[in-house]
């Protein structure tokens, strides 16, 4: 295993690593969702909450298959987060990332024009923001990688033209594609089933990986 992988496996899910700043961050996430749920009860529009849950669920899936890559390759995941954190939850996931993605979908939803036919620079509004937020996320990832906080081990997943496009498409863009799919469904039942499926896949993968196979990731 690579040095970054070994380091990322140290203190994995070790609660002694917890820092007090996790508490106010958690409170902020609770506040945001509480406000959104309160508004949704009045307007009967739950799309902001559903977008938030969708993007977090997609990240949960991404981090799970990334951990499986580490185990199955015996070398490294596509990305690891060996740096300092208040809690490392998977080899490429930590509690700070989890907090960010838990509200990313809500941020995205509130960036959208209420007019579904609206366009920006000739691009449909929903897709413009999906592209914009994905590109910005990749931009931030590059700085995290340069600082050694986010380590990339494979030549096709790096700061190159090919690598950046892969990170854009596989690392972020499909999160927003899923959110768009959910919030554009007319039936609430379809939205809930979709989100349920998004969460069911990584949950089953982790039950198998951590519970049945006893993998360490």
Please describe the biggest sheet, giving its number of strands, its sense, and whether it closes into a barrel.
2 strands, antiparallel
Question: Which structural class do the helices and strands define?
Answer: mainly alpha
- Segments where pLDDT lies below 50 for 5+ residues? none
How many helices? The count is 7
Radius of gyration: 18 Å
Number of strands: 6
The string of secondary-structure elements, in order, is HHHEEEHEEHEHH
What is the beta-strand fraction?
5-15%
Terminal Cα separation, in Å?
Answer: 12 Å
Query: What is the helix fraction of residues, given as a range?
Result: 55-70%
Which shape, going by the Cα principal axes? Answer: globular
Q: Reading side by side through the largest sheet, how are the strands ordered?
A: 1-6
SSE layout:
Blueprint: H1 3-9, H2 22-43, H3 47-73, E1 79-80, E2 88-90, E3 93-94, H4 95-111, E4 119-120, E5 123-124, H5 125-146, E6 151-152, H6 161-183, H7 188-212
Antiparallel strand pairs: 1-6, 2-3, 4-5
Helix pairs in contact: 2-4, 3-4, 3-6, 3-7, 5-6
């Amino acid at each position: 295993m690579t040095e970054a992988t070994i380091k990322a496996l140290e203190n994995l899910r070790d609660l002694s690593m917890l820092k007090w700043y996790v508490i106010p961050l958690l409170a902020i996430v609770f506040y945001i969702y509480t406000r959104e749920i309160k508004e949704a009860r009045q307007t009967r529009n739950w799309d902001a909450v559903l977008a938030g849950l969708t993007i977090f669920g997609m990240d949960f899936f991404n981090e799970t298959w990334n951990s499986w890559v580490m185990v199955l390759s015996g070398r490294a995941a596509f990305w690891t987060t060996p740096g300092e954190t208040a809690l490392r939850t998977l080899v490429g996931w930590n509690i700070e990332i989890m907090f960010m993605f838990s509200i990313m979908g809500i941020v995205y939803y509130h960036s959208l024009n209420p007019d579904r036919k609206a366009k920006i620079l000739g691009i449909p509004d929903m897709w413009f923001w999906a592209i914009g937020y994905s590109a910005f996320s990749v931009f931030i990832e590059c700085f995290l990688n340069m600082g050694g906080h986010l380590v990339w081990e494979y030549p096709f997943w790096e700061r190159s033209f090919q690598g950046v496009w892969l990170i854009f498409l596989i690392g972020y863009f499909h999160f927003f594609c899923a959110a768009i799919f959910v919030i554009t469904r007319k039936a609430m039942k379809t939205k809930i089933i979709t989100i349920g499926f998004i969460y069911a896949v990584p949950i089953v993968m982790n039950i198998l990986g951590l519970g049945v196979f006893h993998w360490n990731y």
